Amino acid sequence: MFSIGMFARMAQVTTRQLRFYDALGLLVPDEVGPGGRRTYRAAQLPQLQRILALKDLGFSLDQIRALLRDSVSPEELRGMLRLKQAESQQRLQAEAQRWRRIQTRLDYLSVAGHDDRAVVLKSVPAARWVHTRARVTGPAQAGALFGRVTAALGGAPFAPDSLFVGVIHDPEAWSGELEVQAGRLLPEGGHWSAAAPGFAVAELPAHDTVAAVIHAGPVEQLPVAYHALAQWLARGGAGPAGPAREVLLCPPQGPAGEGAVTEVQLPLRLVAGGPA
After folding, report:
1. Shortest CA distance to 265 belongs to which of 220, 221, 208, 217?
2. Are 8 and 170 in contact (CB under 8 A)?
3. How far apart are the first and last CA of the chain?
4. Which part of the chain is the HTH merR-type domain (predicted)?
5. What string of H, E and C letters represents the secondary structure of 24-38?
6. Tens digit of each residue's pLDDT, the chain (276 residues)
7. Residue (of 27, 59, 171, 53) closest to 112 by Cα position
8. Cβ of 265: how many Cβ atoms within 10 Å?
9. Among 92, 199, 211, 244, which has the minimal tally of Cβ within 10 Å of its Cβ?
10. Are strands 207-216 and 244-250 parallel, antiparallel or unpaired?
11. Among candidates 183, 167, 250, 219, which has minimal Cα distance to 12?
């Protein structure tokens, strides 16, 4: 079960959107607890992705309700999305960001239900890092934050292979902005004394168990990795126990983010009989 904030982050929507879809009967929470706290199941992610895909295709919410009632298949959605993508490629540069969203939905739908990427369990030791904190609303701002971190933390004492890390906080009250800590791990014995405004040294806490999955590709496609983790969690035996981490193992090699390799780590709270 996921809080409305965690579910919103996995699907890259706002909690306000989820409440709106609930009011319209498009996507009803699995449970509503005391005080109106909504919780969702991983199995509801495909339904939400269908709603978002149809919305990107230009359908009204009433039309989406009718299409969902008629059980549009993933194959039909993929065909419709590919057609929309071809049309979008002919539009002005201002439409480029919309096109990338459609591509992300296509990537999601192509693996929904049969994503075979490996989820591994491992421990993560504590580490010292230099980080800053910011709110981002999309890939453009995330890219700008990465550029800021790279510029501030590009020299000594950092080694060329010092990892970049993002800590993504659960947006329980998120309404379009994502709270992110972004920084770089200090080498063992390294000391950072530069006076970069907004940056500070801190300890990145250890975790006894995290579920980790590797994603190769642009950061815009990271929701596919989060979907793989959600599918794995849906089997039971574990639940999220803290904010997710995104560890950049290989920086992007081109302007479109190609060549990037990211490990998404989700701290776990294991229960009796859970995975080992």
Report:
1. 208
2. no
3. 20
4. 1-70
5. HCCCCCCEECHHHCE
6. 889 988 988 888 999 999 999 999 899 999 998 888 899 998 899 889 889 988 888 888 888 888 887 777 778 878 877 887 777 766 654 555 566 556 655 655 665 555 556 889 999 999 999 999 998 887 678 888 888 998 999 888 888 888 999 999 876 655 667 889 999 999 888 888 877 889 999 999 999 999 999 988 888 788 888 888 988 888 877 888 889 999 998 888 877 667 888 999 999 987 655 555
7. 53
8. 23
9. 92
10. unpaired
11. 219
Copy the structure tokens of residue 270. Answer: 């294991």
Return the domain boundaries, the chain. Answer: 2-111, 120-270
- Where does residue 275 rank: exposed (0-12), middle (13-18), buried (19+ CB within 10 A)? middle
Task: Tell me which DSSP letter residue 72 carries.
Answer: -
Structure tokens given for 92: 């002005």
Q: Is 207 helix (H, G, I), strand (E, B) or coil?
A: strand
Interatomic CA distance for residues 250 and 253, integer angstroms: 9
Instruction: Write the DSSP string, 122-141.
Output: EEE--EEEEEEEEEE-SHHH
Cα–Cα distance between 100 and 264 in angstroms, integer?
A: 21
Residue recorded with tokens 């039971």: 236
**CA quadruple 88, 94, 100, 102: dihedral sign:** negative
Alpha-carbon radius of gyration of the chain: 20
Q: And the tokens for 57?
A: 């295709």
Pair of tokens at residue 226: 């989060």
CATH superfamily of 120-270: Regulatory factor, effector binding domain (3.20.80.10)
